Amino acid sequence: MGKGFNLGQMFDAGQHPPTLEAARGKIDAYYDRGFRVVRIPVTWTEVVDGGTLADPDTGAIDRDAERLAALTAVIDYALAKPGLYVVINAHHETRLKDGMRADVLERLWSDIASLYRDRDHRLVFEILNEPHFSNHDAMPADRLREMTGRAYRRIRANDPERVILIGGNQWFGADEMAKTWPDLEEVGGGRDPYLMATFHHYNPWTFNGDNQGDYADPWTEADIHGPMQVMAEWAGSTGQGMPVFIGEWGVGWHSRLAAMDCNNIRLWYARFNAHHAAPLGMPTAVWDDGGWFQLYDHEKEAFSSNLIDCIDGQCRWTGSDRFNADCA
């Protein structure tokens, strides 16, 4: 799978139009730069762009929804590109998470699996993104395992070889995995070769997060490598060799900076994938929402800085100081 990107704030929230027309340029631009994974966050049971994709009380998909037709068009457009993997999930499902509605999640994934049953196996299913409550508390691990297991079995009834992603029980932090999944009994009992673990990497949040401090944070290589190593250890033990996907990572620079010209941020992007994730065999999807975590500018239909270059391991700096003036 290698390096990838997120089609953020399009089908999960209302920042960008949820259309193939709006997505095509971004998909093409990343693909032309060698990216071979697109993660499409999708909100099904909450209102986006004036409507829902699925009934919030039952999880049944509205197959006549215009946004569903657009989502399918984007999925098919991406899958038509040789070697491009597509990850779809259940993203901002607030009521579903707060109510721990296993029945809704089960029906939702039954319908999704049926709807996309004939798609290439480069289409990957991520069952439930960051399953915290609306007060930000973690979901009880045992309840999440039950919910995930019920959805997993519905997917497997449709397709025994579709890759399924599982993660932690709050923010998809690396340290959540061992607490959430002390065993794999709910997801095939360790006998399913088409399972993949996922986590999100914004460590340290004081540097990576939106609306934090300045960007002169003296982060270290251990800040990048540490969570990856935690996941690698879980995958090599409880996960029985399960592959690991870093579904989100990045820096929310545009929440505080009008333009990106901070070498410390460039260094983070240069070190993250090429020097840490790739050597560990962990594919990645940089979080790009076209806003705070912007790489691609939707209005200009172009990358807005050279962070896209940095992901390959090196890129042009302004001067030679890691903490140059634009980091403050």
TrEMBL record:
Q: Which InterPro entries match?
A: GH, Glyco_hydro_5, Glyco_hydro_5_CS, Glycosyl_hydrolase_5
Any signal peptide, and if so, which residues? none
What keywords are assigned to this protein?
A: Carbohydrate metabolism, Cellulose degradation, Glycosidase, Hydrolase, Polysaccharide degradation
Keyword match Hydrolase: yes
GO CC annotations, alphabetized: cell surface; extracellular region
Q: Which PROSITE patterns match?
A: GLYCOSYL_HYDROL_F5
* GO BP annotation list: cellulose catabolic process
In this chain the Glycoside hydrolase family domain maps to 26-260
Q: Which GO terms describe its molecular function?
A: beta-glucosidase activity
Q: Which SUPFAM superfamilies match?
A: (Trans)glycosidases
Q: Which superkingdom, per the lineage?
A: Bacteria
Q: Sorted alphabetically, which PANTHER family does this protein's record hold?
A: ENDOGLUCANASE, PUTATIVE (AFU_ORTHOLOGUE AFUA_5G01830)-RELATED, GLUCAN ENDO-1,6-BETA-GLUCOSIDASE B
Q: Which family does it belong to?
A: Belongs to the glycosyl hydrolase 5 (cellulase A) family.
* Protein name per the record: Endoglucanase H
Look up and give the organism this protein is from.
Brevundimonas mediterranea
Gene transcribed to yield this protein: celH
